[in-house]
C-alpha cells in the first residue's frame, strides 16, 4: 500500500509522485496495490473511472502492467492541500486492506502501508491516529506493517513529528490478543532527491535470509522483442543483509515449446496456469513468442468454464495431480475472429490430465477427446524433384520473377512452418542458411538417409504423399488462377508458383485456412484482400480436406486446399455464370456467411477510386438489404471477447436455415449451394418503389455506425459477460 499526502511544496510534490511511481514499478503482477491520497480528508485513487468506476476504490488491484499505468495516471492528477489528516488516511488504508483480505485467499501475503508525508498532523487529537492503527490492525490480526517516511527539511527539524511517525511505525498503541505486532521503521528523507531510492528499497524489510528453492518470476514482456520472458532468481545475502539478486532469464517460448505446439488430433490441446489460476499458455491466447504488449493474465476460469465448474481448476491451483473425464468444448475462430467471430466444437467426453511442474507454482493440463481420431502416414518415400521455398538460395534457370519476388514457374515449392520441426522456437529464432536448406533438400530427396532430427519424423512422409499434386494442378490449369496451394495441419504448405515465405509464417493460422475449417464440407470463399505486393486485390477459394473416404465433419482434418484469383477474374466468372448480373438494370454481389462483401460491381468500377473493398460489410454497402435480413432474423449478431486487447467484438452470422432464396421488392438473395456464400441480385434504384422496412439499418447494427469496417479499423467494443472468447 502507498499512503500519499498532498504536499504543499511544488518540488516535493514532483519528487513524491516519482517516488510513488517507483514503488509501483517495483511490484510484480502477483502483488496487490492501492493508493490513498489525504489532506483534510482521505480518498482512494479511483483507477479507470470510465471502465471500472468502483473497482480500484473498493479493493486492492493486482499490480499487472495495465493497472499500474492506471494508478500512475491517478498519481499525476493529485493536487495540493495544506492539511494533513493522518487519522483519515490510516482509517481509509485499513478499510481498503480489510475489503481486500479475502479476494484471493492468500493469508500469507505480507501486508504493508507505506506512509509518506512532508508535514505535521493537523488532527485535533493525535491519539486518534494510534487508535485507528490499533483498531485497523486488530481486525487484520496484526499482520500489517507500517513504514513511515518524512520528507523535506520541515520534518527533519521537527522532533515532535518524527516521534509521531516513529510511534506509528512501531504501533505503540496495540492489542496483541489476536497476534503479535510486527514493528516497522521510520525514515527521514531530508534530501528529496534520495526519496525514490529510499522508498524503493522497502522490499529489504521483507527479505528472507534463506531460500530453499529458486524464485520463478511472473512472466513479463521482454524489452528487446523476445516475447514473454521469466527470470529464475535467488537473493544474495551477506550477514543477513540482502546485497542483490542473481538471476537467469529464459524466454517462455523456450520453456513451453512442448505445450505451445502440442497437437494430438484436431481438438486436443494443452494449457498451463499458475497457482493463482492465471493463464500462462492456452491455445485461445497468443503464443508467448509473439506477445508484444504488456501481458494481461487471463483467469483460466474464463477460458475453461466447464473445467472450472467441475472443480478441476481448483485442484490445479492447489498443485495436485489428477485425471478426469468431463463434457467439454473448444472454441475456434471462424476466420479473422475480430471480424468473423468464433464457433465452439463440443466434445462429448474429454480427458483432462494435469500435473504440477516440480519446484514451481505452475501446473500443466493436457486435454484429449476420448473418442478423438489421430491419423498417421506409414510410408517414408522420398520426394522427387523437391523444391524448398527458399528460392533465393537456389540457383536454377527455371526461376522467374513475379512482381517483386523470385518464384518457381514450373514447379511448386514447399514451405515448412515451425510446428513441422522438433524445436519450433529454434527454427523461428535463427535464420535459415544455405547449409540448412541443402540438408533439408538432401533429406527429402533421399540423398542423405541419416536420421534428420531437426524435422519431425512424419514430415517427409506427408510431403511425399503430396508429391503428385502438381500433375493434378497441371490438368486443371487455368489462366485465371494466380496461385494454387495445399496446406496440412502439420504446418506444410505447397504452393505453385513457388514463393519464399517468412519463417514465422504458419498456414494453419491464416484466415483462409481457418474459414475452411469453420465451413467443412463447403467451398469457402474469402472476401478480397490485397496481395503482398500491393498490385491488386485477390479472392481465395479454399476447401478443407479430411482423412476418410466420406469426408465427414467428424473426420480428422488433413489440411486445406486453396486457389487465388484476381478480383477482376472472379467478377468475370460471376457474370459469365449469371448473365443477369451484367445487365444495367441489375446489380449483383456475393456475400459470405459473416455478412462481408466478397464481390460487388463497384469493386471493378473504375469511376470510384476510393471504393472500400477489403473488409466491407453488407451493413455498410447494402444497408437496406442488411436491414431486411436483420428484421427477418436471417442475420444475427454474435459476441466474443479478445482478452489480449481487452475488447468485446460484435460479429454477424447469416443463415437462411431451410430457405434456399430470399426475395423482396428490391432484391433477391440466393444460397450458393455447397459454399459459405450468397448471391445477391438487386434492382437498380430507379426501378424500385419504396422500401421494405422503416427501421434504420445503421441502428440495428451497432458495429456499422460510420465506416468502421476497414482493413485497419473494424473493431467494435461492447461488454457482454456471456460472450465466447476469441482466438
UniProtKB/TrEMBL annotation:
Top-level lineage group: Eukaryota
InterPro entries, A to Z: Ca_channel_alpha-2/delta, VWF_A, vWFA_dom_sf
One Pfam entry name: VWA
Family annotation (SMART domains): VWA
Gene Ontology terms: cellular component: voltage-gated calcium channel complex
VWFA domain segment(s): 13-202
GO MF annotation terms: voltage-gated calcium channel activity
PANTHER family: VOLTAGE-DEPENDENT CALCIUM CHANNEL SUBUNIT ALPHA-2/DELTA-RELATED (PTHR10166), VWFA AND CACHE DOMAIN-CONTAINING PROTEIN CG16868 (PTHR10166:SF66)
Protein name: VWFA domain-containing protein
Species of origin: Owenia fusiformis (Polychaete worm)
UniProt lineage: Eukaryota, Metazoa, Spiralia, Lophotrochozoa, Annelida
